[in-house]
Amino acid sequence: MTLTTAPDPTSATAQLVRRVRRDRSRRALRRTWVLGLLVVAAFVVRVTLGDYTITVPDTLRIIGGADIPGAGFILMESKLPRAIAAVLAGASLAVAGAVMQDLMRNPLASPDILGISGGASTAAVFSLIVLGLTGPAVTLAAFLGALAVAAFLVGMSSGGAKGGTHALIIVGVGCSALLVALTHWVLLRADVYRLSEAMVWLTGSVASASWTEIGRLAVLAAVALPAMLLLHRRLRVMMLGDDLAAGLGVTVDRHRALAMLGVVLLVAGTCAVCGPIAFVALLAGPIGRRLHGGRTRLVDIALIGALMVVVADHIGAYLVPGGANLPVGVVTGLAGAPFLLWLIVTRTRVET
After folding, report:
1. Which of 26, 112, 169, 197 has its CA 20 to 30 A from that of 329?
2. Smallest Cα–Cα separation from 259: which of 287, 236, 291, 286?
3. Closest CA to 43 of 78, 11, 3, 87
C-alpha cells in the first residue's frame, strides 16, 4: 500500500506570494530605470542644446577642466548650474510633497497648499522691498520664512488641533491665503526695479542660482533625501492610523515631527535658492503612485520631480514662442493646472 502526500497548500500559497512580490519588484525596478534614463536624457539636452549648442565631448572636456572660449563660460555659468539646480529642486520638492501627503493622508496636502512655500516668498519679498536687503540675506530670510510657517503647522500638529489632519490642512490653506495677501500688500510699496527682483521669489526660477547656493542645496539634499527614504518605512505604518501604528511599536508623534522637519528643510532650502516652483510638490507624488498602483516609491517620485523641473526649465528658456525666456515656475504652473484636473477626473472615473 502506497501512501501519497497531499500538496501543502500553505507552501504553494507562500510560493505564489513570493512570485507575485518578485514580479512586482522587477516591474518597479524597470520603471525606476526608465525614469532615471529620462532624467539623464533631459539633463543632457538641457546642458548641450538651446540657443548655444555644445557637443557632449566638449561638455565633458570643459567639466574636466579644459578651457574652450565661449562654450566654457556659457556651460559653467549658465547651462550647467541651471540644470543641476533644477534636478536638486525638483527631487527635493517632489519628495517633500509626497511625504507630507502620506503624513496627512491627503493628496492635496503639499507644501504649496499649506503655505510653507508661501512663507519663503513672503519673507523674501518683505526683506527685499521693505528692509532693503540683497543677496544671501534675502536667501536666509526666505529660509526662515518657510521655517516659521512650518513651525506653526508642527506646533498645531503636536498640540492636537481639533479635527486632526483635516483641520491642519484648513489652517495651512488659511496661512497660504494670508501670506498671499501680505505679499501683494508689500508689492504695492515696491518700485519697478525692486519689483523685477521680487518676481524671482514669486514665480520660482533656477536662472540665478549660484554655485555656492547649489552647493548648499546639494548638501541639504544629500542628507535629507536618504533620511526621508529611511523614515518613510515608518510612515507607511502610520498611514494605517495612529492607534494601529502605536500598537505596532511606532512612536507616532516623534516620527511625525521628524517627517515634518525633513519636509521643512527640503522645501525651505529649495525655496531659499529657487523660490516657489508651482505644482511640483503637489503632482509628483500622485504621478508616482499612478505608476505603482497607489504605492509611494520616493526614489521614483524624486526622479519625476527632477524630470518635471528640468524639462520645464528647458521649455521656458528656449521653446516658448517669441523667446520670452519664462521662469520655470511659470511653465510648471501653466502645465500643472490642467494636469491636476486630469488626475482628479481620471481618479474619479477609476473610483466610480
Report:
1. 169
2. 236
3. 87
Short-list 258, 220, 300, 265, CA closest to 96: 265
Question: Cell 529660509 maps to which residue?
Answer: 143
Q: Are 271 and 120 in contact (CB under 8 A)?
A: yes
Q: Kind and range of the H or E element at 196?
A: helix 192-203
Run of H or E including 328:
helix 328-351
Q: Which residue has the cell 563660460?
A: 73
In eight-state DSSP terms, residue 121 is: H
Q: How much is the pTM?
A: 0.87
- What CA–CA distance (Å, rounded) separates 86 from 101? 22
Evaluate if residue 351 carries a pLDDT over 50.
no
> How buried is 180 (Cβ within 10 angstroms: 0-12 exposed, 13-18 middle, 19+ buried)?
middle
10 Å CB burial of residue 85 (0-12, 13-18, 19+) is: buried
Dihedral class, residue 238 (left if φ above 0, else alpha if ψ from -120 to 50, else beta): alpha
- Whether 301 and 288 have beta carbons less than 8 Å apart is answered as yes
How far apart CA 331 and CA 312 sit, in angstroms, is 6
C-alpha cell at 352: 466610480
Question: Which of 19-33, 208-222, 316-330 has the weakest average pLDDT?
Answer: 316-330
**Residue that has been written with the C-alpha cell 513672503 in this structure:** 122
Structural Rg of the chain based on CA atoms: 23
Report the distance separating Cα 331 and Cα 204, nearest Å. Answer: 10
Question: Residue 159: what residue type?
Answer: G
Q: Rounded to an integer, what distance in angstroms lies between the CA atom of residue 285 and that of residue 97?
A: 7
Most confident by average pLDDT, 2-6, 39-43, 56-60: 39-43
Q: How far apart are CA 115 and CA 156, in angstroms?
A: 14
**3-state helix vs strand vs coil in the chain, percent to 5:** 80, 0, 20
List all residues 6 or more positions away from 55 whose beta carbon is below 8 Å from its beta carbon: 48
